[in-house]
């Protein structure tokens, strides 16, 4: 009964999405992408894989060998991994595992699916996957068609996304399904007295690798014992990013010898706090704001609202570059603010920060605190939407991060750290050491992947 109601809901949601797509650009991308999924899968069936420049690489005869019986061939690596990520954040979390599979099993076919346009539209040209597409809607017909076309030897779900019809079908076909970097909370349906349907869905997973001890205990409390405490693969990703971080001369010049605060993935609620704080903060400070959604008109409005001198990164790139590669910058006052309106820079720009305020904590869900933490600096964020993020809870408990409810609290907390160099260093060391200590989840995931194949 529950399965019927669920599937009916999926059909209704599909119809509703087509209607909403007439007025909502993001939904329109999803509907259009769903329609393209089948052709993308068919184009990849010959085993061709994109290289770094986006061109297709002709496979060897061994790589062309089809996988049709779901039996893994670990000796010659001729099988298919299917990875699913809800959105861009989950992709970045799973990326170390995807790339480890590519290195360890170079002849394998890798299929990557997304639910959200923010994931697919940003990573549709990802060169480590043979095909990148939207996950077809979770109806029995779509599930059967997708699995018949892809022929996965293993399905790997990143962090969450429990699609019942997919998981039931994988179980029925004998295809192992894993979930990694997962995190569970007591209020989820799996752990409720009336959550039997969702417990059945959960049990379709052959193994779950969790981020924390609490998640492990919750799963065992409902007699799910195929669980490994592995940690968060996102930590491996940020360590990798830090090692490859780019340099930005303009950012270096903007910072100079003045302390720098970076506000990363900022939403309007976050900037209300930051702007109010800047209105009263009188010490020398440079500020870089990286909005979560880049909108030229919104940035123009914010520049009019902020009380300090402000600039826009892309405008500097065009107008102020000199012949020697340096930038002709104005003389800054006590405080100056730079809007970072270029995608893909933030994770590297964090290297220049002395302090970081991570956005999303006031309303939309806290963004990635690990990207700045790996470089080592005090971290601040809003409340209350940080509690489902284990790394945020850990950094708060250890003292490397601090949560603030409003501009007054932020001003007080920031000023204390700004004026106390020893305290600043202590918090910075806590953040940096946390990342280094807890990295290594990817290796544990790869061990379970290999063990699952061998046991089959």
Automatic annotation (TrEMBL):
Keywords: Cell membrane, Lipopolysaccharide biosynthesis, Membrane, Transferase
Biased composition (Basic and acidic residues): 46-59
One function term, GO molecular function aspect: Kdo transferase activity
Gene Ontology CC terms: plasma membrane
Segments of skewed composition (Polar residues): 60-70
Lipid metabolism among keywords: no
Swiss-Prot/TrEMBL catalytic activity: lipid IVA (E. coli) + CMP-3-deoxy-beta-D-manno-octulosonate = alpha-Kdo-(2->6)-lipid IVA (E. coli) + CMP + H(+)
Main location: membrane
Function noted in UniProt: Involved in lipopolysaccharide (LPS) biosynthesis. Catalyzes the transfer of 3-deoxy-D-manno-octulosonate (Kdo) residue(s) from CMP-Kdo to lipid IV(A), the tetraacyldisaccharide-1,4'-bisphosphate precursor of lipid A.
Domain of life, source organism: Bacteria
EC number from the UniProt entry: 2.4.99.12
Organism of origin: Runella slithyformis (strain ATCC 29530 / DSM 19594 / LMG 11500 / NCIMB 11436 / LSU 4)
Location in the cell: Cell membrane
All residue ranges annotated as the 3-deoxy-D-manno-octulosonic-acid transferase N-terminal domain in the record: 75-236
Sequence segments annotated as region (Disordered): 42-70
Xref: Pfam families: Glycos_transf_N
Protein's pathway: Bacterial outer membrane biogenesis; LPS core biosynthesis
Name of the featured protein: 3-deoxy-D-manno-octulosonic acid transferase
Annotated PANTHER family: 3-DEOXY-D-MANNO-OCTULOSONIC ACID TRANSFERASE, MITOCHONDRIAL-RELATED, 3-DEOXY-MANNO-OCTULOSONATE CYTIDYLYLTRANSFERASE
């Amino acid at each position: 009964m529950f399965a019927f109601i669920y599937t009916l809901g999926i059909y209704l949601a599909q119809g509703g999405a087509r209607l909403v797509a007439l007025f909502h650009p993001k939904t329109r991308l999803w509907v259009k992408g769903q329609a393209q999924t089948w052709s993308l899968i068919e184009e990849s069936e010959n085993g061709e894989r994109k290289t770094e420049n986006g061109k297709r690489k002709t496979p060897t005869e061994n790589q062309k060998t089809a996988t049709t019986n779901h039996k893994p061939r670990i000796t010659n690596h001729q099988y298919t991994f299917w990875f699913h990520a809800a959105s861009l954040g989950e992709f970045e979390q799973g990326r170390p595992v995807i790339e480890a599979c590519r290195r360890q099993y170079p002849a394998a076919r890798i299929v990557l699916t997304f639910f959200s346009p923010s994931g697919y539209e940003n990573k549709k040209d990802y060169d480590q996957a043979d095909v990148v597409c939207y996950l077809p809607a979770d109806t029995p017909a779509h599930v059967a068609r997708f699995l018949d076309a892809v022929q996965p030897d293993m399905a790997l779900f990143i962090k969450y996304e429990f699609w019942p019809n997919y998981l039931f079908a994988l179980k029925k076909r004998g295809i192992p399904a894993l979930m990694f970097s997962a995190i569970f909370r007591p209020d989820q349906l799996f752990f409720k007295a009336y959550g039997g349907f969702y417990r059945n869905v959960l049990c379709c997973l052959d193994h779950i690798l969790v981020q924390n001890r609490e998640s492990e205990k919750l799963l065992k409390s409902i007699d799910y014992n195929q669980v490994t405490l592995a940690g968060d693969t996102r930590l491996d990703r940020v360590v990798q990013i830090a090692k490859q971080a780019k340099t930005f001369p303009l950012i270096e010049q903007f910072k100079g010898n003045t302390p720098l605060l970076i506000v990363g993935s900022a939403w309007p609620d976050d900037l209300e706090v930051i702007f109010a704080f800047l209105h009263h903060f009188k010490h020398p400070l440079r500020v870089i704001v990286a909005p979560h959604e880049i909108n030229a008109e919104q940035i123009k409005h914010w520049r009019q609202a902020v009380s300090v001198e402000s600039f826009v990164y892309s405008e500097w790139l065009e107008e102020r570059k000199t012949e020697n590669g340096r930038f002709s910058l104005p003389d800054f006052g006590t405080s100056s603010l730079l809007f970072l309106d270029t995608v893909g820079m933030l994770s590297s720009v964090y290297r220049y920060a002395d302090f970081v305020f991570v956005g999303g904590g006031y309303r939309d869900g806290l963004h990635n605190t690990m990207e700045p933490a790996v470089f080592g600096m005090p971290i601040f964020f809003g409340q209350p939407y940080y509690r489902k993020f284990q790394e945020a809870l850990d950094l708060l408990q250890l003292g490397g991060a601090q949560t603030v409810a409003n501009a007054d609290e932020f001003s007080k907390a920031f000023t204390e750290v700004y004026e106390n160099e020893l305290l600043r260093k202590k918090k910075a060391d806590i953040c940096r050491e946390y990342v280094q200590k807890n990295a290594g989840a990817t290796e544990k995931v790869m061990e379970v992947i290999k063990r699952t194949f061998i046991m089959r």
